[in-house]
């Protein structure tokens, strides 16, 4: 055999060596550096956090329980609708309870509670959440109707429920918002991000949204934590309801927590690409044109459009 | 044991109670409210609709059958390419037939047909769809070539097929468009939304698109139901080909169905973020600049750019 | 039985016929047309390419190995962190080796190498990649800190790591960038597209990005292949760092390869929807306002905002 | 490169060829030979048969519905027991309906029926089966109690239900027997074989078995189609209740259908390895010793043991 | 449409009705009857029991940790053997801890303990079990060697480990026996039954078995709870080491718990189908012939064979 | 909080410690002991062996390819039978090639070959195996017919193919036997054990079996490596065709390799539980009764039954 062939044969039968011990040690050191920078002992790091994959399954189950004949299993029949709803809810709520325990324990690292207190709160949160589900369904029905009425391409309410990413995002938001209100903001955020990843629509679970809400197409929509949206509001893709830039404290750190996103009153329509920033108010019945950049309040009934985006149109026939 | 410990022990061994009977009843009432508002009897709601997860598998199988060595199984060899294509198609078409039956039955709730008629139509739709696949593949080859030619970062046509979300979206669109034309618009829409969720590119299955079509990056692109796109057209991310706002009938309801999206002629390029609205025509060989907001037709060979977006540049050195 | 019933019975028991032989032959002909146009023999097409689903698993495993207690398995305990990291890395690196072999073989179709050379290079690439992981983790820690400091809505660094799509995209980018540098650009691109599909953030693996990088919300962000980004840079959703249009050679073909995307220096903030095109430089400490369209360099410390987007506000009370 | 290395390189990069076309053709010819020998046209062979994997899931679901807290999901709570049972039954019965349709269609190849008749019968079979389930559960409770009482190693009735293969086999038998009685013997047989494969206990679904039946250990037990077993019978491993050999008709063919297996009356115990053949009767309260070979009836109260299996015991100390 | 066709159409579109409410109620009543017969309140039934599917995964993981290069993942390399073993053990032990908690809680329904006591015991059981694993591996190595030496068909020790059901059964037994000794007999029994189902070999976890133990073929072997087996013992298929029948107490109930299975001393061979019953002793170095039925002790060095099973050989040429 | 509660709280929040480092080290030492006893260096142990789970999938795929309409996918239609067969075979043969490579490499540790030789042999083995499949199918058709003709309970040939474990075992045997003959005995053995585990029928892949072979019920059947079985032979459950005991060489080791199992000529029937040992011949057309223990040859046409197993029948009425 030639040298080449010998080397080749050796290579093909031998196992490569990754110098794993050194890589593993390097990663451990990097973690230790981080943990000491974060002032976290060994003990701290061991606490578990809520799991995205578990919440993925919980969210899917809740969608099925809310709309059993549309988002439930393909072979569901009306005769057993309640059986399905009850069984699915039970499994989802038990699983949610486990996630809530994890978040409460995690939060308790700074405000210690007894295990009993944590357990009582966890059960109470899940029980309250469960009791809110019928109201959430009724609210979502107004959203579905709004989507059907708001899009000329929609043929039936069922198509809306099956196909529209905006509806999917709103279902997740309405669930996430209740979780946020009940005191598990991290779980709420993960539920929101599940929809964000699926639809490109980023609604912070803290946002307050009225009935009959519709987002068409939706990719790129961003709605911030302290935004307040009224009833019968319609948004198109790439609309931002954001915070103004440069909100810093005396030390130059970004300020956390205060109301900093827009208030959008009832019956407002905001077209694609509009960017609305800061704690301003869009008055009732206003419409905001596409690509508008708005940082001050407008009174009820306003129609905001770009006054004179002069465009240069050159026709040199080059493309013909 | 202390009181605390007793409560704790009790909590840990007992099962929480979710008051499920009440929640299930509440959800049933909410459904009943909705169904009576929709004038749907018990019977109606029981009909099944096409399933997104089934169509997900069908779409993936069709992608594999169209591009076996690139989107088919990793271990496929050319010797058995036809076997793979034939077997995969057969399974996908049988599964599609089941979905088509569901949509036809659903549609028949308003225009009743005999089971025989429905079955004959369902089989005919799937058979026609199958016969169109070779033409779809040839069309897609023009798209792949256009992508390769249109992006300086593209190294090979294979990279384009494996990595480019724009290509993935166009494959799904070309399949969905045939389904739309053959009379199963709900299935078509679900296929489109599968790609929308994966790529952030939202092409309504009704849109008509010529050969050698390329969308680069793609996130945020929206193409409406009645849009008509010529040959060799190139779009960038966040381009909207939408309907104008406020198309209402005498009663204030949005009008459904009529042509309301742009016609884009051959050899047009539309840059990132451009918004083109209404039944206008972008003439052959035109280019539309980034972020342009366009609501009126432009003749062939036009180059539209923002004339004078004056920008304020302040240099206070604050960031240094 | 009536005729109708007879037909129905026949339909229900018979199997539909898809004329599969003809469809399969049509697809084969289409493939042959394509392959001869691409000057690919039978032999060529048979070569395998890297697999997205394999790289999906590899990327997820690497995320777990980098952040074991946050992105690793839910039940991981600190006692066995190193065991998990070592085992996960080993499986991921072996799997990556198989993918690297495929890309090198594919690339070798134009620059033939001996199997021995290919194998030596493949092993070397994976070994180098492994050795870089601790440094990647340290870099990512600066990104996580930047995200926490840069968003008023972020409660903890853990929330940032679990929920922020921008962080997910950056983790994938930092891995993909090393693979790109080590000579497997197709694998690198697939890893980037995994994150693009999940987050709507499209970072080409070739882009060079400094420490403490943060993208907020992120949907619609596009960062091109030759972009260079300094330290402590912050981007918002829908920011484009792209190439200028019309870069063609003498024959009208798009030019491939040369530096064509922006250089963004340290401490720059770029707000939502800004589009920055061409090989220009954004000087240190600058801020670029939302929706800005920028195609020329700005010096350090610049603040670019839209000077006078005059807006027409009509208040006719129609919406009230 | 040496010749050896060249060949090696070639081998490693080329794909082996399996001469698939010839193998596929060979298999088709073998199928055609078989089908023409069976006088089956193309049409016949296309009919589907019940699916083992579908019945596997159905059987598992029915076990869960019968014993929800023991064989149902791990996290089931009593509060939602009925929800689980109802939902699980509904899905299992719908799935069973599909399987029953297949068997009825298959059976109808020799005794044609209209689709309507087949459908009516299929629905009737499943409905009857469902209505029998509470009685099946009550019967199984007697079996569980018998197992607990009959085995000194059994600690609790729960252990018996969770661990004893004999109990698993009897659950499957009692379900299969009802299906056999209702007219779907092929489905019944598949359900029996699922348990046979799991436990090594082979009970033909046609066998009639009274209450409080217990099989201990069980591997190798065979109970024939026409066997009749009374109440409170106990069997051990490797017991055969079989047909006598050589039951042929005038032409030397084995006779099918007639009663040919034993009748075992109430309160009989049959020990490991006993073989009981033919349409004989084991009288009430008898016990049959291990390894006994019995081909004639015994009256009530008999105790059958091997009279004098003389054994040669040689002690040559060889093993010490 | 004819009547027939009308009925058919109705059948095909309508959903069958299973009268589920009645079936569910019937099953609930059956459960209630059982529970009140077992004197179990609602509360009792709600307690969970160890899960077979969880233990299935645990057992498979432990097999991998014991024999990483043979029963671990296909792509494992020696470089990362310890990483794999550590990570796999950690996950398996955590999962086992959850199962142990369930069994201890279940057992505590009759002998109540505080949650703290239960938790301490559960952790102690799992920790002890973990510490015994190296010794279990050493013992199993003697079994593998015995299998290789004892079967003329065995080519290598690796074949024995990969293929022999007897070896699989012994691995499970040695794990189950430790669990049995440590106080979780239900978990132990489920682990044993996993192997029983897979191999047809039924070894009660209570049985005590010395080193270098080999079962060839194995189907039908039964080894009882109180059996004691010495070193270097070899069994063939269908051997029973059972209890004598009729061990009843004064009230006619079967006695539970006392030693009732054979003691088999070192270096004994027992051939296929032999049945050995009761608390007898098979002396060191003995061999027991096939199909022997033995209910009394034999001294060391005995060779037991069937003395004179006279057989009738009729040669009527009928079969020729 | 009380002490008890304090401990409890601590327990519930802390993670248990398994002293993993020590357990992992203990297991490593046990492996090292074994490896040095086996004279295996680090290098040796790293070689991979064929994988049972991979062979499981290969065997299932081959069953489908042999009997597409019965063991293939539920929705297969005759129109695409060949597509399915070709695609399934291709994937199964590719996967088999990988397994064959592993066994050849493993075998080559004692008789080193060049990588080229190994690859050539591996491809040749798989190609030969593929070419034999049509003949295997024809042989299996005789087995299916024999099963149908041999069992009074069999209704159709389809039932036999779907339900009979004896048929499943023979399919696996006929595949395994070809693999054994082609020089991959370890793979062959694993395929046999897959069927053994499923059916309780243990046929060594080395056994030679003629056409029209039927095993009824089957649990406990053992057929040894060098057994030779003629045409039209029928076996019942628990029949052993084994080796005689005590075949040792001069050093007391068991002899490996030589013919040591029975020759069973054409048209023989062997009833349940019969044990036939050693290299004896059962003459053409003989029948061997149940439970017979036979260690010497019988001439053609023999009928062997137990002459006078005297049984003691005591009727004391105790059971009544």
TrEMBL record, chains A, B, C, D, E, F:
TM region(s), chain numbering: none
EC number: 2.3.1.30
Keyword Lyase set for record: no
Domain of life of the native organism: Bacteria
Gene Ontology biological process terms, A to Z: amino acid biosynthetic process
InterPro entries the record matches: LbH_SAT, Ser_AcTrfase_N_sf, Serine_acetyltransferase, Trimer_LpxA-like_sf
GO molecular function, one term: serine O-acetyltransferase activity
Keyword Cytoplasm: no
Protein name as annotated: Serine O-acetyltransferase
């Amino acid at each position: 055999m030639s040298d080449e062939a010998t080397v080749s044969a050796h290579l093909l039968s031998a196992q490569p060596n990754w110098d794993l011990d050194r890589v593993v040690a390097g990663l451990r050191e990097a973690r230790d550096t981080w943990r000491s920078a974060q002032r976290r002992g060994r003990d701290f790091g061991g606490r578990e956090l809520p799991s995205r994959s578990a919440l993925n399954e919980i969210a899917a189950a809740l969608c099925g329980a809310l709309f059993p004949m549309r988002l439930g299993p393909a072979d569901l029949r009306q005769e057993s609708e309640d059986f399905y709803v009850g069984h699915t809810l039970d499994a989802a709520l038990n699983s949610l309870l486990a996630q809530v325990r994890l978040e409460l324990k995690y939060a308790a690292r700074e405000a210690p509670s007894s295990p009993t207190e944590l357990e009582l709160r966890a059960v109470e949160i899940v029980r309250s959440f469960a009791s809110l589900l019928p109201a959430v369904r009724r609210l979502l029905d107004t959203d579905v109707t709004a989507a059907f009425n708001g899009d000329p391409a929609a043929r039936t309410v069922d198509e809306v429920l099956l196909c529209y990413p905006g509806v999917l995002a709103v279902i997740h938001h309405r669930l996430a918002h209740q979780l946020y209100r009940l005191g598990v903001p991290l779980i709420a955020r993960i539920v929101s991000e599940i929809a964000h990843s699926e639809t490109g629509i980023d609604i912070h679970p803290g946002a307050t949204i009225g009935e009959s809400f519709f987002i068409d197409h939706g990719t790129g929509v961003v709605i911030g934590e302290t935004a307040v949206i009224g009833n019968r509001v319609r948004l198109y893709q790439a609309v931002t309801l954001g915070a103004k830039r440069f909100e810093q404290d005396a030390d130059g750190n970004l300020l956390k927590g205060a109301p900093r996103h827009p208030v959008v009153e009832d019956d407002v329509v905001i077209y694609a690409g509009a960017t609305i920033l800061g704690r301003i108010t869009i008055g009732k019945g206003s419409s905001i044109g596409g690509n508008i950049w708005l940082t001050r309040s407008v009174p009820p009934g306003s129609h905001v459009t770009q006054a004179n985006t002069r465009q240069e149109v050159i026709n040199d026939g080059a493309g013909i």
